[in-house]
Amino acid sequence: MLSEKEYQDRIDRIAALRERLAQQLSGSLVSNPALAEELNGQIDALMEAATDADATRPVPPDRGLAALAGIGPDAAKTFGETLTSQGVAPYDEQVNSERIVAVGDLYYIYQHEQIGVFKVVQKLKQLFEAGSVRLSSGPGAYGLYQFDRRDVLRYTRRDRLDAYRRVLGYGRGLGSGQSRPNTDFHMLFGHFVNQVTLFWRDKRISDVIRERALDPSFGSIAVVRRSGLDLRNNLKFTSFGHLNVMRVELMQVLEECFKILGSPDVIDLFGADNAWDVVDEVLIRYFDERLQSSPRQRMAVTGRDVLRWLSGPHILETARGEFEALLMNIAEPAEEWLTSAQAMSLARRTGSDRVLPWEQLGQSGIASPVAERSPLTVPPSFAQPRRRMPSPVYPTRGGRGTYRGGRSGRRPMTPRR
Known about the structure:
Number of domains: 2
Structural class: mainly alpha
Radius of gyration: 32 Å
């Protein structure tokens, strides 16, 4: 630990060093902003190395409390001789990459669930068992038999819906194991995607209309980093449990479904060209649904790419050049996800909202889901309050008046006209 005087002297010397360098290199810093970033990075590295060295210095058992209070032979004579702390360890932003990758795969599976892939295979299995389709011994028929036999070993549809609710917040009710649903995921995810797209949109505009188009001082990487860290911290505690093994099993099931739907006998049965054509044909013919396969599938692919990018340490990069180079990997996937989600009214594109207040989480706000379809979502017609029917009118004895019956009993009599 440092004494209070040493601690204050170090801060003053660092400030003087920064000011001296800025004065001597003022001309070069204006024409080359990257030089200022490099100098600040080197000074910050020196500060961090000095702080780590201070942590190895011996500390008294009472951590300087007796010297501060003026007790014992080691009592401090001046305030500058007292020991001080430089703070605690910063919040741990490190997250197990495997858990974030698992969330990305679950999001990928959820979008295919919303498309109706699992529902299509179940319907095809019912038709096969009822003998309503011309399938008997081909690879698709044998795959449907094996799919049915393995069904007892897999997670059920109820387990999948509960996992979506717990980890992604989609659906209704509680999550798996009666856990609290992660209702903030979609808003935080949409906000991060919006900030990534806004950052690169600003960069493209600056490359066209601004002088020194390659000047990296335009735009703020801090906003992008903050939104990404908020999303990672949200997923940090919801990605525990059986999510990892569940997504491995469901990815295997999804692959098996497409092998069945893409088998030659099933494709010939529906006159299709590939497995996706079979999915669309079954949804139209047997479920009479509007097709959303294309935007949902692109949301699945690009959304998983964005979440996989967050699983790495890229979001913790503080150097502007390195951060922009790493962020470029998800520039186009983020734009494509936002365009697809906006087309389906699941997100909106923001222009001026750079910060997402904590008070808005779980409420309507930036990139909040609009009319999100889910197997557990109550249709709007059933969500409206029920209207109370008017009470019937009954004649009174003697025919002189009427009264209206109801829960509260008789009402005042009204004369009959």
